[in-house]
Design a protein that fits this description.
By secondary structure, this protein is α/β, with parallel strands linked by helices. Helices cover about 40% and strands about 20% of the residues. The strands form four sheets. Strands 17, 18, 19, 20, 21, 22, 23 and 24 form an eight-stranded antiparallel sheet that branches. A hairpin with a 5-residue loop joins strand 20 and strand 21. The protein is globular, with a radius of gyration of 24 Å.
Length: about 575
């Protein structure tokens, strides 16, 4: 196999003494025995997506390793010195259960310290939301977490947080990326100044748990807490370090932990994917729930920013909620509490994303709070809080199983969300209802919105080209009709345009550019196409809706919406 010139140039660089002997030998091994993998490892630089930098571990500039992370940290160090001149700079670092996360975290700490930056490094694995909290709690200018969320075991990643506790957004991200791209590998300072590296653990844990309990508790009676039967699984991830303690401190004693998934393990041996969005990830937890007659099942992903929830339906069976449903339940609960306490005065808002259920807007209207919408990713919700300090953020989330309660943590936070959904469940059960019945009543009150996600995986260099071509085709040959319904509006976030296909009128979208297309049909359906920023996937988000007159008619009306979704999938050839 002939190596392309641009790839050969990168490969030859990695064979120089700038890189250690072990790395050079690994590159030679790829040249001799794995030319395809060599190409995949070197054909491009890893990029920052919606969730930071994420990729397969290995040698090469398209892989996660000490050099790609070292280069990113060196560029970030240079940027920090530029924007915070003549002042002490501090950074916090956390890491998850993945292979090499601890050693890569130490590399990042070494590079920061070599650049004169004071570092607070967690002594062992911790949830991502605790990192967001710690950045503000310790008065740091930035934070890093080593994680690849729910990706397969061969992945790792690097997420950058700013002094507000939120992930970096424009203009910081672009400026940092420019700094990184203008660096050479021989400019990385790897020699640590150990006196600048401080290890942190229980003191920050206590502050984080105290804050979570204060922020996500809503006067649930002790008897109601005692009556709620909970099953929890950490899916081999970091949440085991704080979620059980948080629930206990909040007064929830009846918690059964899935023992087989309790130990952090980067191989995730009991699941195909440690992603609570996937039904089978919660299979063991549901099995335990049936043995213990639990009311609710909660599972978190490896870095504990997403949560999956299952509750008893009206037939007594465990039913999985999707991310939109859990978001609606938690947001409606928060809004009702704020309303009852007389705290809504026109200065509050809730937030979500353009690919999430439109039902969230109906909640905002009903409770007379503002709704703000952003691009996919919680960094945009965190930016809303930063950009509108005169307003109070009540809560918000997105369809991908993430939620944020208030602004103590400026990222999706499965610790606070776990406690909040238990509050929802305990209070519902205490009044003779259930989480499931509360959801059905919301459909009656605010409209029955049903969503479905189609995710198509296309791996590697060829897969990326296929995904790009799919988006090109959708733009150059826009759909005029979907499921027999005329398309009335097309929003193209890459072109920053919203075009009414019936009137021909065109508006400018003010959000940052993103490779997202959204179609709206005349019956109120919404179909969004979006390549993932962190995985080799293209996602299609489908939302349909209708009125639900009574809870008793739920099954019949749900069947009608399911049929509509099925027809949309068939019509767009997504199956």
């Amino acid at each position: 196999m002939e190596i392309k010139e641009n790839i050969l140039e990168s490969v030859n660089e990695w064979l120089t003494p700038v890189f250690d002997a072990e790395t050079q030998e690994s590159v030679k091994g790829l040249i001799a025995g794995s030319p395809k993998e060599l190409e995949e490892s070197f054909y491009k630089n890893l990029e920052f997506g919606t969730g930071g930098m994420r990729g397969i571990m290995g040698v090469g500039n398209n892989r996660i390793n000490k050099y790609t992370l070292g280069k990113s940290t060196q560029g970030l160090s240079d940027y920090l010195k530029k924007v915070f001149p003549n002042q002490p700079i501090k950074a916090t670092i956390a890491y998850d259960c993945r292979h090499n996360s601890d050693t890569l975290a130490k590399v990042v700490a070494d590079v920061f310290s070599a650049n004169g930056i004071e570092v607070y490094l967690f002594s062992s694995l911790r949830p991502t939301p605790e990192l967001s909290f710690a950045v503000k709690h310790l008065g740091c200018q930035c934070g890093i977490v080593l994680t690849a969320s729910h990706n397969p075991p061969e992945y790792n990643g690097y997420k950058v947080y700013w002094e507000d506790g939120g992930q970096i957004v424009p203009p910081e991200d672009g400026a940092i990326i420019n700094m990184i791209e203008n660096l050479n590998y021989d400019q990385i300072k790897f020699e640590a100044n150990e006196s600048l590296i401080h290890y942190i653990d229980t003191e920050v844990d206590k502050a984080f748990i105290d804050s979570t309990v204060a922020n996500a508790s809503f006067n649930t009676p002790a008897a109601a807490k005692d009556d709620l039967n909970i099953v929890f699984t950490s899916l081999h991830g970091t949440s085991i370090t704080v979620v059980p303690q948080t629930l206990a401190q909040a007064g929830y004693k009846n918690v059964h932990i899935v023992a087989e998934q309790e130990k952090p393990d980067g191989n995730f041996p009991t699941v195909k994917s440690p992603n609570p969005e996937e039904p089978e990830a919660l299979a063991m937890a549901i099995e335990l729930a049936n043995k213990t007659n639990a009311d609710i099942v909660i599972g978190t992903d490896p870095d504990c920013d997403r949560l999956g929830v299952a509750v008893r339906n009206n037939d007594g069976e465990m039913a999985l909620l999707n991310g939109n449903q859990s978001m609606i339940l938690m947001t409606a609960f928060l809004l009702e509490k704020w309303k009852n306490e007389g705290k809504i005065n026109g200065k509050q808002f809730i937030g979500s994303t353009i690919v999430s259920t439109p039902m969230i807007m109906e909640l905002a209207t009903a409770y007379d709070v503002e709704y703000k919408s952003g691009l996919t990713g919680f960094k945009w919700i965190a930016k809303m809080i930063k950009d509108f300090p005169e307003q109070e953020f009540i809560g918000g989330g997105e369809e991908s199983f993430g939620y944020m309660v208030g602004d103590a943590v400026r990222d999706k936070d499965a610790v606070a969300a776990t406690l909040l959904i238990c509050e929802v469940a305990a209070q519902a059960k205490a009044k003779g209802s259930s989480v499931y019945n509360e959801l059905l009543q919301h459909y009656v009150d605010f409209g029955f919105y049903k969503e479905h996600l189609i995710s198509i995986t296309k791996k590697g260099m060829e897969g990326l080209a296929e995904i790009n071509q799919m988006m090109v085709d959708l733009r150059e040959n826009p759909l005029k009709e979907i499921n027999g319904q005329r398309v009335v509006m097309v929003e193209d976030y890459k072109a920053s345009t919203a075009k009414n296909l019936l009137s021909g009128e065109e508006e400018v979208l003010t959000m940052p550019k993103a490779d997202v297309l959204i179609y709206y049909t005349e019956d109120g359906s919404k179909i969004c196409a979006r390549p993932s920023g962190t995985e080799p996937k293209i996602k299609f988000y489908i939302s349909v809706n209708t009125e639900l007159d009574t809870v008793e008619n739920f099954t019949k009306v749900e069947a009608e919406l399911n049929e509509k979704i099925k027809n949309i999938i068939a019509g767009m050839q997504l199956n």
